[in-house]
Amino acid sequence: MTENRIPVSLVGLGSMGAALAKAFVAAGHPTTVWNRTPEKADPLVAQGAVRAESIAAAVAASPLTVACLTTYDATLEAFGPAAGEVAGRTLITLNSGSPAGARRVAAWAAEHGARYLDGSIKDTPWAVGGADTLIYYGGDKAVFDEYEQVLGVLGGDTVHLGPEPDLAALYETAVGVTLTTTMVGFAYGASLVGSRGLPATSMVRYSVKWLQLIERILPLMAEQIDSGDYRQESGPLRLFLDIMPDDLETAEEAKVDAEWLRPIHDLIRRAVAEGHGDHGSAALVELLKLP
Length: 291
Hints:
Strand order of the largest sheet: 3-2-1-4-5-6-7-8
Order of helices and strands: EHEHEHEHEHEEHEHHHHH
Helix content: 40-55%
Strand content: 5-15%
Radius of gyration: 23 Å
Mean pLDDT: 95
Distance between the termini: 55 Å
Largest sheet: 8 strands, mixed
């Protein structure tokens, strides 16, 4: 077989796992699939995948196994019966979890003679296989280099972060919190305009403009954080103090819960009190570092 037709086994057929398996099948890779609920494999078998009767059989079928389960603990539990099959093979995990979880799986893989790479998909299942879909990995660079073409089937923006096996999980958390807070903020804003009978769709154009502004600001913030010089930004933190009461007054009038804003307000007040009033928002990083 040519290099870009390496057999692959896919363990875990939730919405994301099924999308990964579908991409491998569509690219012509001999694909073996396994899931605790066997019928989830039916659509993939119809497309050309092979159903394994056990996780051990799935691992034994291919030199490369990609696991897409919910957490690292779920991965360790599922792969227990396959511990005798992973030696000399490669395991790649694409699930959510903490850096500590990734290190636990890396240790398990090393103990059982498997090579390991951990990754994180920064998009939705329907984006799998897209030219702009970002998937980044941490771990053995030799493993990444060997399978880079295979992994490129899943997303065109494929990145190796470094040799530490927990880097993808670290960045998953560090970057993912931006999405979480953005979604909460949009839901909050939709509640405010909804109190006046206005649709959430009326916000989209203007919210996108704010996101484009954030896109321009982030490189500057990152430079300030890396340098420790927070004087360059045009919007000093002290200006936020003036609008905080207005935020709460608006929420009270609209009968919208603003409790999620209060810790943010407290953080800004602390920053100003500690001498960062004339600094930009990048200075908040100084308060977020624990001794």
